[in-house]
Every structure is written in C-alpha cells, then in structure tokens.
C-alpha cells in the first residue's frame, strides 16, 4: 500500500509506504529516527535489532498473528522521514492493553473487529516512542497520526491501537479522532540513592526490616546470584534461561510468545543491553530474570524458575533490578505489567497511556464513554495506592 499526503511544513507531497519486513529498512535510518535528545533516547525495544530479532526468529510473523506492517513516511524522492512499528493482527494476544470486550461487543452487533492495526512492540508492556520522527517535535508526528488513519481507511481494518505511548506521542494523538486510554504500572524511582541500604532508609521501620529479612531468606539454602551481559550470554546460559521462560510462559499464557532462537539473536545483536539475573544453587542455575537497559532506565521483562524458594522471585526480579539501577546511576526501573505486590518493595504507581482510532462511529462512541469512566477509575485507584500503600516514611517524597 502507498498513498500520498501533503507535507505538514511546506505542502509538498509525502508518500506513505507499508513495509512488511523491517529488514527492508536500513538499520541506521530506523535507529536514527528512534533516537532523540529526550528521555526517549535509546529505548532498546524500538531499536531495529530488537524488532528484527523478533521477525528473524519467527516469534513475530504471519503464523504468530503479528504480520509486520511498518509505516514509512518519505519524500517523493524516497528519503525516509518517519516510521511506525506496526502489525496487522487477527487477535488481541500479547498486547497487555485489553480490548477483547470491544471486539466481542462489535462482533455481536454484526461488525468485524479483526483484523486491526497494532502500533506497539510485540509482547512488551514498556513505555516508549511509537511515532519515530527523530528530533522533529511536531509536524511529522502529526503527519504520522494522519497516516495511521489513512491506513485504516484504505485497508478497511476496524481500528488502530497505539499502546504504551511516551508523553510526546500522547500529545500528538490526543483529540477527537483518537481515544485516550490509561492504565497503571509500578516503577521504582532512583532518587540518587548511594546503595540499596540508602534506599531502605527512606522506608518505614517495619517495611525496612521486612525487606531485609526477605533478601536474607531469598539467598538462603546456598543460592547465589550472577548478573550476565555481553559475552557472558553463552548458548548454555540461554538454554537454562529458556527452560525457565517456557515453564512460566506455559503456566501463565498457555503458549509462550518467544522461541529459543529469539534469545540467541538478542544476545548476539544486543548483548550489551541485556542484563540476565541468574540464581545458582548446587552448581546449576535454578531461576532467572531478563532485563533490558536503556539510556536512563532498566526494564524487567521475563522471569522463570525450576525450583521454588521463598522470596526468590522478588529478589531476582525486583531487588536485583533496583541494585543495578543504583549501581549504574539509572533513574527508573520498569518491572513490567501489573503487580500491586511491587508497592511493598519500593515501586510506585504510574500511569500508562494508549491511543485508539476506531473507524465505526457507533463503536467509537461506545468505547469513548467507557474510557471516560475507566480513566477516572484509574486516577482514583492510583491516588489511593500512592497515598496509603507505599512503604515510604510519611513525609518522604513519593511519585514522579
């Protein structure tokens, strides 16, 4: 599919092109558009290497129900100005922003909800840029918003959904055409702590003692922790971690989203951005968590284990990520979707954002009414959690 539209700056024609394999776009061009001078810089999940690893491994593709439809905005001469990671989908799995109810209601009314366009990083509930425009701070981002609408109109899909948006993209997609949705996650904010103990001093005495006891108990029974990155990520290490991932994925989702080859490609192409936290006992790895590191934050992604030990999950997934952030001067730990249990461990409620363009007037109006109520509920819940359920001493700074 190709279409033309006016340049938002000087009125010259721009071309919107759909690319079905990210390998057909030069990596340096893509990454240049994904990189900015803001906190969005070097988000690991929108890097060409990450998205290409998903495609090359077969974790993303037609069989997986994530058909790449990357949107490319370029000049008539073929110079790429902006891109959008996008996928045509016949289901709503692996998104972490749930629209199953919308699909059911529309189809009961005689509509066809699938296929839809998903603007996101597959299987990754991490906030980041979706309208990749380099250092342009306005016109091209708005042109991409119009491009998404043009795709929906020309292909006949029901809708387009842009999830886990950063603040710049939220601002661009606000308005009557795009519906704004909010949800909640829990992040840790490093306020210049010199050590984990320094962080603990900001907590109430009871919470501080609890966390110290949990960490001590988690590392009992001869368990030690290794942090692996770069050349440490051998195939044997990935074999161990993949066994953990498959165990957790099979229990939580029924079918894990990622295959073994993806992790090899990730280590090969982005090993310096990976921090694999592995728990060892009696000479073998028994549990692990995969983290990705960006410019100013660390993202917790996958966890699994072959042995159950008290508090080991909290240690490997949450405490070790906090340790790493403090040691390396990172500002934020994003620990994935959901999980109010993270509050007791120093994580704080934050709002996540998505934007939805729905072609059908009736469905759009119904969803708009629902989202208005949902936003109020999210805001109310977040205020209560921030005020009454974080472990910080009363009067200490909370939230960002």
The SS-based structural class is alpha+beta
Could you say how many structural domains there are in total? 2
Unreliable segments of 5+ consecutive residues: none
> What strand line-up does the widest sheet have?
3-6-7-8-15-9-14-13-12-11-10
Strand coverage percent: 15-25%
Q: How many DSSP helices?
A: 11
Please state the CA-atom Rg, rounded to the nearest Å.
22 Å
Number of strands: 15
Instruction: Summarize the amount of helix as a percent range.
Output: 25-40%
Strand and helix map with partners:
Blueprint: E1 2-6, E2 13-19, H1 27-34, H2 48-57, E3 66-68, E4 70-75, E5 80-84, E6 86-89, H3 100-108, E7 116-119, H4 139-155, E8 159-163, H5 167-172, E9 179-189, H6 196-200, H7 205-218, E10 224-228, H8 235-252, H9 260-270, E11 274-281, E12 284-293, E13 297-305, H10 312-327, E14 332-337, E15 348-358, H11 361-388
Parallel strand pairs: 7-8, 13-14
Antiparallel strand pairs: 1-2, 2-4, 3-6, 4-5, 6-7, 8-15, 9-14, 9-15, 10-11, 11-12, 12-13
Helix pairs in contact: 2-9, 7-10
Summarize the structure.
With 400 residues, the protein is of the alpha+beta class.
Describe this structure in words.
This protein is of the alpha+beta class. It has two domains: 221 residues, Aminopeptidase (3-Layer(aba) Sandwich); 140 residues, 3-Layer(aba) Sandwich (Aminopeptidase), CATH 3.40.630. Helices cover 36% and strands 25% of the residues. The protein contains eleven helices and 15 strands. Strands 3-6-7-8-15-9-14-13-12-11-10 form an eleven-stranded mixed beta sheet, sandwiched between helices. A hairpin with a 6-residue loop joins β1 and β2. It is globular and about 65 Å long. It starts with a strand and ends in a 12-residue tail after the last helix.
